[in-house]
Design goal:
20 strands; about 15% strand; alpha/beta; four-stranded antiparallel beta sheet; about 40% helix; elongated; six-stranded parallel beta sheet
Length: about 625
């Protein structure tokens, strides 16, 4: 049955209608019933280019009538739900590519930020291992589907390790616990009357593993995504009654616009739905490599109906008997599904309809990011311009790769990679703005103060406008992280470094030290102020470049354990104390040298750019964003 409840929130929140949908185990009912609701407000505006948060979304959890209390009683405080974040489950027909890495890097930055704020995070990633393409790829490689899946899945785990991905759950759709939950979910949807058997004939894209409408195909019935002709197929399949959920999905998108983000992705989904939802096939008679349909073992479950359940099966603990209810009780619904825009339809339309059919809560937000290009061109093996993430991380390091893509691609839009811009951005931001500032400040401290701080940072910065500026930038970065404006968050943190370089150049402590007396004391305090700013940068940028920030913290005399224990509260001014001993200066990021013609087009050996301490730092601020 469905329940529609209106609830008015006071203060800065407008009156918003929130919808909760659940289904009984019998046939669908259009009747409306009152349900006890507890509301939680979530401010979320990732589509805005401004740091100001501009909207509120309401999410609700419903209790049964037996759990309801008198309307005059005081409700009990509920335990805070975990922040469940998912990447797509990556298809193992081929090793990971840069698009997969980009999704996962972004998800990891979001997960790390949420942990800094004190949230219990469950970061889910994994591999989608069933379907026709998998069997074909395995046969082409002369291996069995099982062996093929093992090898490719492991290649994802290896890359995630190299990229410092801090996932909590890695689910494989060939895992027995996943298969058990898929079978249980299928049975619930079947019992609800939303699965039926029928013949279907249409144009099928093998690469998408999806039947296509002729109106969405290119010339010669080519798939617009893979540019290959679709093949005509006729099968006796089981279908999911997607059309039955048209109105309910329209209501969700209308009354909860944050369900699909950015806003232009929501518009894409709504425009697609205007032509009317059609029931879709959820089984394949011609595909052997998959989970068997519980009521018809001659057929296998459609790969998407299977894979989407990985977001739930990942919540099952390995040691327990897998069940849908146990998995759900571990924290579902997901707070954020992070996906590429090419699979938006499956997550924003098919998946919520499936969940409603099974009587389960919907994810809170589906965020569809853009594609990556290389040198302004779409990447492809036929063009010889693919961007291999393994090569990139081994060539430049995880911090450089993570920072470039999160800083230079406006999250949600398409973005472009060129090696020249990559080197210029990484050198300017990480080696110069941040690295050189720390290195020359520690050098001055060692030379003049025996690497020891002369005052608490809170005392050294009393009445100093620089401190106020840093605090404003930290708050700005937090707001941007919360709104998934990852590029803007990087920029705000980098502004702290730019301000620090300007401060030290204007105050010229190297000259003040030579004057002695009160000038010496002022110079020593200036170094404390800059190093406190570096400490704050290390915390605020850690979601993006964790190893770089660890090295900064260690240079400031802290242990890895102390760095790992930091929270966002540690971005508050006042962490460094008088008498603290800093480590000797040691460059935290090696400048990448641009190859010259004499080097035959290969990268020169990485080396640190050394500058005389009296020379002001050359500031380079370059932002390139490519619109979707």
């Amino acid at each position: 049955m469905a329940a529609r409840v209106q609830h008015s929130l006071q203060s800065q929140r407008n009156s918003i209608t929130a919808f909760f949908f659940s289904s009984s185990s019998s046939s669908f009912s259009n009747s409306l019933t009152k349900t006890q609701i507890s509301f939680r407000s979530k401010w979320f505006s990732p589509s805005s280019s401004s740091s100001k948060r501009s909207g509120a979304a309401l999410y609700c959890t419903c209790s049964s009538n037996s759990d309801s209390t008198d309307s005059n009683s005081t409700p009990m405080l509920a335990k805070e739900d975990p922040f469940i974040l998912t990447t797509p489950l990556y298809y193992v027909n081929a090793p990971p590519h840069m698009g997969s890495a980009y999704s996962t890097i972004a998800a990891d930055a979001i997960a790390r930020f949420q942990r800094l704020t004190g949230k219990k995070v469950i970061f889910i990633t994994g591999t989608d291992e069933h379907g026709e393409k998998i069997a074909t790829a395995a046969a082409a490689g002369g291996s069995t589907p099982n062996d093929h899946c093992d090898a490719i899945s492991q290649s994802y785990r290896a890359l995630w390790k190299d990229l410092d991905i801090s996932y909590d759950k890695f689910i494989r759709t060939t895992d027995p616990k996943h298969e058990a939950i898929v079978e249980e979910f299928y049975s619930k949807v079947l019992e609800n009357g939303d699965i039926y058997r029928a013949d279907y004939e249409g144009l099928y894209c093998v690469n998408c593993e999806e039947y296509k409408d002729e109106k969405e195909l290119l010339e010669n019935n080519c798939c617009p995504m893979h540019l290959k002709p679709c093949v005509s197929r006729k099968e006796d399949n089981y279908f999911f009654a997607l059309s039955k959920y048209q109105k309910r999905l329209e209501d969700i998108l209308e009354h909860n616009p944050d369900f699909v983000q950015p806003m232009y992705r929501l518009n894409e989904v709504q425009n697609w739905m205007k032509s009317g939802l059609r029931d879709f096939s959820i089984s394949r008679a011609s595909v052997d490599w998959g989970i068997r349909v519980p009521n018809d073992p001659k057929q296998t479950i459609y790969v998407w109906f299977d894979a989407l359940l990985g977001y739930i099966s990942a919540l099952s603990e390995d040691q327990e008997q897998p069940s849908l209810q146990r998995a759900i009780s571990s924290g579902w619904p997901a707070s954020l599904h992070l996906i590429g825009k090419d699979i938006l339809r499956f997550h924003a339309v098919y998946w919520p309809a499936m969940l409603m059919s099974a009587g389960l809560s919907l994810p809170k937000t589906v965020f569809g990011h853009g594609f990556l290009t290389k040198d302004g061109m779409k990447m492809g093996k036929s063009l010889g311009n693919t961007l291999e993430p393994n090569e990139l991380v081994h060539k430049f390091g995880a911090d450089a790769v993570r920072y470039f893509f999160l800083r230079e691609v406006e999250f949600g839009n398409d973005g472009d990679y060129s090696e020249e811009r990559f080197i210029n951005i990484v050198n300017a931001h990480l080696a110069n703005t941040i690295g050189n500032l720390l290195n020359r400040t520690l050098g001055l401290l060692k030379k003049n103060c025996q690497s020891t701080l002369v005052a608490d940072s809170s005392v050294a910065a009393q009445g100093n406008a620089f401190k106020d500026n840093v605090e404003k930038l930290v708050e700005k970065a937090k707001t941007q992280y919360e709104s998934l404006l990852l590029s803007s968050a990087c920029e705000s943190v980098l502004e702290i470094g730019n301000a620090g370089n300007l401060y030290i150049d204007e105050h010229a402590p190297w000259s003040l030290f030579k004057k002695g007396g009160t000038s010496f004391d002022s110079a020593a305090k200036d170094l404390v102020i800059i190093l406190e700013a570096m400490r704050i940068i290390a915390v605020a940028l850690s979601p993006v470049a964790p190893n770089l920030c660890l090295r900064i913290y260690q240079q400031l005399g802290y242990t890895p354990e102390q760095f790992n224990a930091t929270t966002w509260n540690d971005t508050q001014w006042g962490g460094l104390k008088s008498g603290q001993i800093m480590a000797p200066p040691n460059p935290i990021f090696a400048r990448i040298e641009i190859p010259s013609e004499s080097e035959g087009g290969t990268l020169a050996e990485k080396k640190v750019s050394k500058k005389k301490e009296k020379l002001p730092r050359t500031q380079t601020q370059t932002q390139t964003t490519v619109g979707a």
